[in-house]
Amino acid sequence: INECVTSQPCVGICTNLPGTYNCACPEGSQGDGRKDGKGCTPIIHEKRFRSIDVVLGVSISFLLVLLVVSWLYWGLRERKISRQREKFFLENGGRLMLQRLLSEHEGSVEAARIFTDEELKKATDHYHESRILGQGGQGTVYRGILPDNTVVAIKKAKNLDRSQVEEFINELIILSQIIHRNVVKLIGCCFETEVPLLVYEFVNNSTLADHIHKCAHESTLSWRARLRIAGETAGALSYLHSDASAQILHRDIKSTNILLDESFLAKVADFGASRLVPLDRTQLTTLVQGTLGYLDPEYFHSSQLTEKSDVYSFGVVLAELLTGLRALSFERAENERNLSLYFTSAIKGERLFEIIDLRVLNEGIPDEIKEVAMLASRCLRVKGEDRPTMKEAAMELEGLVRVMDRHPWVNQSCDLEESEHLLGERSSEYDGILKSNASRNDDSISNQVPFEIESRR
């Protein structure tokens, strides 16, 4: 007999069993499930539900408050950054730069692009250490990649006197207009940072100094390449001094500021110390700035900057190219530390070919070496008025390059014994020639001694 059907003793779930039955309450209720017992009553979760509701409500409210606060914080932060960028833009002369660009280029700003701070941060991976190309007294240069995959060099200056902003902008305007194959091209700038950032073309084959001094024990530069680089550098400086819209004095010519591209084309770089010379003046009175070993002694003593100051520095670079020696080295003997003094002393003492780099001796024609050495010695004269102009130096070097191209001569033997024989042979050959030229430089040598002492200080 199915008692669950006949007597229906349960209020919940009735399960018929042999000779008996079993009552149970459905899920969500409690009791014995019998009609004559406790029956079934719903299980009340009121307190539990209320606890969960409270926790969820507090959590959601907290998240909403956090989101609102975060939104307000980032909004205020971005507004502050935007105002700061605008402030820097105005302080750094951004408005003046734009006005000048618009007026001088008739509405086109292609001559010098003005970048935003965000653009340059993305280009340099937020100025990551791995992007540093070099560091110096005036700032740090980073390798940057623009959205169109153009590789650029971004110079981040250390500081800028606010009183010099207009002068800085004037120089920037001039540099943005320089189009010369041997001058590093200024692509643009950024005024939204505490100090302006300059964006230059990227030159990928290191500096002249690296190729002369840092490539194992022997320079990678042939005599032909050295002469061509000297001519290109002289041509760039001649352009800056004589052919630019306003005369530009570089003021820091040295082998580390001459960059080389993949075909060893020379490009003059780093115009951070440069100065514009007004049309009605031939010299400027400035605080002495430059690099020891390359610094014009006349400028050092008088603070009068002229185009001949660049000529002197170029003379030191010529001496570096000829000898393979650094401009200043305390690893050398005391009388050889300052290359300009050592070089002119060697000419005076008829010992020029004893200090010429062996590769230059092996590959160069004696007449060429002598002419470049004599040009270098004239550039190194203490009195600026006795030095040639950069235009004269450039013409002389271009003439030598043309002759070399017409009559190439390369001594393929690099044997040291032959080099030493060649050195002695050429030294004898030019003893008489150098003696006559050396007498002209006596004044330069004697007058440079005080400068050498000052430089060591």
Automatic annotation (TrEMBL):
The record's Gene Ontology biological-process terms are: cell surface receptor signaling pathway
User: Protein kinase domain: which residues?
Assistant: 127-410
PROSITE patterns noted in UniProt: PROTEIN_KINASE_DOM, PROTEIN_KINASE_ST
Q: What is the lineage of its organism?
A: Eukaryota, Viridiplantae, Streptophyta, Embryophyta, Tracheophyta
Q: Which residues cross the membrane?
A: 54-74
Q: Where is the composition biased (Polar residues)?
A: 436-449
Reactions catalysed, semicolon-separated, are: L-seryl-[protein] + ATP = O-phospho-L-seryl-[protein] + ADP + H(+); L-threonyl-[protein] + ATP = O-phospho-L-threonyl-[protein] + ADP + H(+)
Q: CDD domains this protein is in?
A: EGF_CA, STKc_IRAK
- Membrane topology for this entry? Single-pass type I membrane protein
Q: Which UniProt keywords apply?
A: ATP-binding, Disulfide bond, Kinase, Membrane, Nucleotide-binding, Serine/threonine-protein kinase, Signal, Transferase, Transmembrane, Transmembrane helix
Region (Disordered) residue spans: 434-457
Where can this protein be found? Membrane
**One Pfam family from the UniProt entry?**
Pkinase
Identification of the protein by name? Protein kinase domain-containing protein
Top-level taxon in the UniProt lineage: Eukaryota
Gene3D superfamilies the UniProt entry points to: Laminin, Phosphorylase Kinase, domain 1, Transferase(Phosphotransferase) domain 1
Q: Name one GO molecular function term.
A: ATP binding
Question: A single GO CC term, please?
Answer: plasma membrane
Q: Main subcellular localization, coarse class?
A: membrane
